[in-house]
Specification:
The chain is mostly beta strands and 170 residues long. The protein has a single domain, classed as Pnp Oxidase, Chain A, CATH 2.30.110. The chain has 3 helices and 12 strands; from the N terminus they run H-E-E-E-E-E-H-E-H-E-E-E-E-E-E. The protein has helices at residues 5-13, 60-66, 79-86, and strands at residues 17-18, 20-25, 31-36, 39-44, 47-54, 68-74, 99-100, 108-109, 114-128, 131-143, 149-152, 155-158. The strands form 3 sheets. The protein has a 7-stranded antiparallel β-sheet, with helices on both faces. Strands 1-11-12 form a 3-stranded antiparallel β-sheet, with no helix packed on it. Strands 7-8 form a two-stranded antiparallel ribbon. The longest helix is centred in the first third of the chain and has 9 residues, at 5-13. The chain is globular, with a radius of gyration of 16 Å. The N and C termini lie far apart (39 Å).
Amino acid sequence: MAVDAQRFRELFGSYPTSVSVVTTVDADGTPRGLTCNAMTAVSAAPPMLLVCVDRNSQSLPALRHSGAFVVHVLAENGRTASDVFASKADAKFEGLRWRPAALAGGAPVLADVALAHAECRIVQHVEAGDHWILVARVEAAEVYRRRPLLYQRGTYSVWHQETELAATHG
């Protein structure tokens, strides 16, 4: 079967992914942000990750200008934040408690809805189809003991495993 845009979305929507919100500030210091499910580790030494941002995203100019962002992997209570940051709303931060990141140019840290967050500095921009890949060095990170928010086929769910996964060494 041919792979058009719809089939591609079905392919990647068929398995659960984490949900992330990327935040930054624009040239005027106004907070900006977007929901992103394309975020992954790149390197452990040095610590690097990447996020993929639609070239039409309203937050892309701010990301490119600031050169820094905070990526938040959302916890189970982050569904509303995911929906708000996925919208084109102007007041995405209204009603959300946040603090400015110390190492990511003052980008908003949304600790209340995060499973984890990383403060990042962009080291490379790669144009790829209808997106930009932003490769960034992780400057600081926090991890919280919460359950992750998942997304599959247009539906949110929560990871319900109650025990910690055993560490593996190999």
